[in-house]
Specification:
The chain is of the alpha+beta class and 257 residues long. Helices cover 40% and strands 19% of the residues.
Length: 257
């Protein structure tokens, strides 16, 4: 997992589109006790939650308010890492954001106060780690089948069928889907698609002149139409728009009017 802290972070645009990467995270707004969650299909619609939130596994883009990033701390979990702190299957939280008090009761509500009392950035990060460990409900170990699958996926084997992945790991397809979804929060097929999308972003992010047909072929898409469809499904924009409006942060793109 990755603990992070932003202080004094500002952007010229009011909202950002955040690309999905299949992971889960905790975010605490230290400036105000509110989190504004925007409907990706209609960003004018906003849901207001307390300042401490848990973001479930993402398989579609989300929209955030950049004003909330002025003073914010968070935990970005590696795939499957958050399930050790959940009292429900992470698949129930796909593309969902809930308050920490909904997740952990009064102890979840108290986390923000404990962070505000910590005097230095280092103290805030140590406090946050302690708060998280207090919520562990099972050992910090990943199912062996999931560990094996993630290694295969990281080795550019995301084009394998689910049956092929299960066969490589040595369990049945049905059992593999069950344990993977219980740990990661997404089905293995959807997670593979999201990881392939992320791989494309990493390839093109620092490139000025992109041959999209080559990118599609190199990353296992049937053709450019298949690639364009997947890209828009996950990001809500086409590849050219991403390239034109990309920021230094791989998964952050200004939300256009």
């Amino acid at each position: 997992m990755l603990f992070w802290l932003y202080e004094g972070y500002t952007q010229p645009h009011a909202k950002e589109r955040i690309m999905p990467d299949g992971s889960m995270q905790i975010v605490v707004n230290l400036l105000e006790d509110e989190s504004r969650i925007y409907d990706p299909a209609s960003p004018g619609r906003v849901q207001r939650l307390p300042g401490s939130i848990f973001c479930g596994p993402r398989s579609r883009f989300e929209v955030i308010d950049t004003a909330e990033q002025a003073s914010v701390i968070g935990i970005h979990f590696r795939p499957g890492g958050a399930s050790r702190f959940l009292r429900m299957p992470p698949s129930e939280l796909e593309n969902t954001t809930i308050s920490l008090d909904t997740l952990w009761g009064m102890s979840g509500r108290d986390i923000r106060n404990r962070l505000l009392e910590a005097a230095t950035p280092e103290a805030k990060l140590r406090t946050f780690e302690n708060c998280l460990l207090e919520q562990a409900v099972r050992p910090l170990e990943r199912h062996l089948a999931v560990r094996g699958a993630l290694r295969l996926m990281a080795g550019r084997m995301t084009e394998l069928s689910i049956a092929g992945l299960a066969g490589q790991i040595g369990i049945s397809r049905r059992r593999f889907i069950q344990v993977f979804s219980d740990d990661i929060g997404l089905t293995p097929k959807l997670f593979c698609r999201v990881q392939r999308f992320q791989r494309v972003l990493r390839v093109v992010h620092g490139t000025q002149d992109v041959d999209w047909a080559d990118v599609a072929l190199a990353n296992g898409y049937f053709d450019q139409a298949h690639f364009n469809h997947d890209f828009r499904t996950f990001s809500g924009i086409n590849p050219g728009t991403y390239l034109k409006h990309r920021t230094p942060h791989l998964n952050h793109v200004p939300l256009l009017d």
